[in-house]
Amino acid sequence: MRTLAPSPPAWPVTGHFYRLRNDVLALMTEGVRDHGDVVRFRVGPLVMHLVNHPDHVAHVLIRQRQNYDKASRSSDCLALICGESLLTANGATWKQRRRTIQPMFHRAAVAGFIDSIAACTDDMLDAWAVKAKAGEPVEIASEMMKLTFRVVGRCLFGTELEAEAHAVEDAMHVMVLHTYYRWRSIINSPSSWPTPANLRFKKALADVDAIVARLIAHHRANPPATPNLLTMLMDSRDGETGAALTDEEIRNEAIAFLLAGHETTANALSWTLYLLDRHPQWADAIRAEFQQTCGDAMPQMEQLPQLVQTLHVFEESTRLYPPIWAMERHAVAADEIAGFHIPANSGVIISPYTLHRHPAFWDAPEEFRPERFLKRDHDAYYPFGSGPRFCIGSEFALAEARVILPMILRRFDLTGEPGQTVEPEPAITLRLKHGFRVRLKER
Ligand code: HEM
Fold it and tell me: Average model confidence (pLDDT) for the chain?
């Protein structure tokens, strides 16, 4: 007799559809609070399990990973934007791409990005100085999206994406929400139907496609002296056939990296600045540490390990507001987790958002306490995933955080505008639903 995992109350046919659609963070939080570490959700015939224990995470992402691939509904939705790419591929294709791209993200390669990260930040801060003088507020979520997009442009594509930053921010916003709405709506009209939402998505995709096509053409016409992600993709050859990647394959990877490389970090930085507004003693700690380590100079890679408090603040922020709040896998064959039946072809969800609040692993989980990261190796901490599909850009993101946050705080006091509501919006990444507006004062 198969034992079914417990499940929150559901409607007879639609199951958990409405709450998954409108209230997913609360549904998952209550699910694990009331029913334990394996919770079953259902929408019509679709079944998904949320697994909320480090042992179950290791089961799905490491030990039994052959049975849990990325042919999931969320991957299908992401593939509408970036086709088959490192984010969405499985098996041999994924393995070969990962091997090709990995050197771009080794620590030594990331060291070469530091100057570009600092220069992009400095440009943004100069623009902020003008706003500060005029007494204009800035909207942090949007500023961070533009900044991290420019950083990705310079570091990964060797290109200034200044002019495109605004257009891409808008287009990415449309695409990310569209794919997320498709994921949570479960039953959708075919994407080829000319509904207003599909047309908006198509236009946004065409805008981003045009930018990426220009980048590829520019690289072909003027090969850069220093290799970057695009040149590595263009130069890569299949180990067996010797075939190069097609333009479409290169396009898919480029868009995957534009998406994965800027939106996640932007949200993490925005949440961190929001938390620092509420805990100003940590902003002061970051300033003091940066002054002691770098003085008035630009930070260097070898100084980053000394920015310990900055790292702990960022770690605590990504604990409370993990940009990737859910990772989905597809169970190829039936399995059992903690004695509960996992049917073949069902979904399995790992949520850093709920795991990072698991009371068995975190004291006072809702509180912002960066000092908890003085103790290393937290069992239930997965901001960058786990196993072979661990985030390829984690070193890059951690370097960005330790350059961008102290540079901002060294130059400005930020004060959140009173009366605004700051709340999470779980799209593909955990966004700030209404952004976060601050007043600036140059120091
Ligand atoms: C704070 C920032 C970031 C967070 C929280 C984050 C989080 C994650 C997570 C949780 C995964 C695993 C997803 C899964 O297993 O389903 C992942 C994968 C990935 N990330 Fe990141 N990421 C961040 C920054 C970046 C950056 C800066 C880049 C690139 C420049 C990047 C590129 C990727 C790619 C390509 C994958 C897929 C890797 C694979 O499947 O082999 N990420 N990320």
Answer: 92
Q: Among the listed ranges 273-282, 315-324, 412-421, 423-432, which one has the minimum average pLDDT value?
A: 423-432
Ligand 1: distance of its center to the CA of 391 in Å? Answer: 4
* Residue having the nearest C-alpha atom to atom 17 of ligand 1: 391
Work out the pLDDT band at 74, boundaries 50, 70, 90: confident
- Residue of minimum CA distance from atom 27 in ligand 1: 261
What domains can be seen in the chain, in order of their start residue? 17-442 (1.10.630.10)
One-letter amino acid at 107 equals R
Ligand 1: lining residues by beta carbon, under 6 Å: 86-87, 98, 256-257, 260-261, 264-265, 268, 318, 323-324, 327, 383-385, 389, 391-393, 396-397
